[in-house]
Amino acid sequence: MAVEERRHPGEERSARAGNRERAIPPGWHHNPTSLRRRALLAVLAACGLCIALYLTLFQFDAWTTVWDPWFDSRTVLDLTSPVPDALAGVLAYGAELLLLALGGRDRWRTLPWVCLALGAVLSGGAVVSIALIVIQPTVAGAWCTLCLVSAAISLILFVFGIGEARAAWQAIRRSVARGWSFGDAFWGRAAIACEPASAHAPAPAPSRVPPGSHGRAWLPVAFVVGAALVLLARRDRSP
What we know:
By secondary structure, the protein is mainly alpha-helical. The chain folds into 2 domains: 29-194, Up-down Bundle (de novo design (two linked rop proteins)), CATH 1.20.1440.130; 209-239. Helix content is 67%, strand content 0%. The protein is built from 11 helices and no strands. Helix 2 packs across helix 7 (145-177) and helix 4 (86-100) runs antiparallel to helix 6. The longest helix has 33 residues, at 145-177. The protein is elongated and about 60 Å long. The termini are far apart.
């Protein structure tokens, strides 16, 4: 008869607190990939997606006017006609929502490539936003309220989201310093392999086998097999 193990409420709280502490990167005072933080970033990205989609539909002639209580937005939006530049915002915000939804609270070490990809998208959005703010008065000679709001959202996302990429890059460097290959560290295989089987089990030591050495390990076997085949061939040819 199976006996169900029951944990004391204090032990469960201690375990949850330990998991939260392990999710904080070394040298950090907070977790840049916490679920709450990513949820807030996702709300901002969703707002930016709605704005970009609204402007994109205007550029596709879905409607003839665009809402703006202060400026002549049409002058700015027609600047790149017939290319709908707002579509780039739709793709960027959509990619951010997708990347924010992947992984757990410690994905800075288990999925570092996702954090780096998010950092690249956020960096691109910040650069484009700054360029958009500069171009509006200098090239178009006008302002666009929704464009400015979208640019502000992109800059806020960059400020509060770039920490993921920093933590992930630091985790990759630590894994490489411990002997893991860059590929294993980049794709998160190093972190998964180092996870203990239980809370009291020690983590396995990283493999320090250099890249390509697995293939060289078969060279002696291949040499012996090749030599045997040569000897058999010479024996068959001998009278």
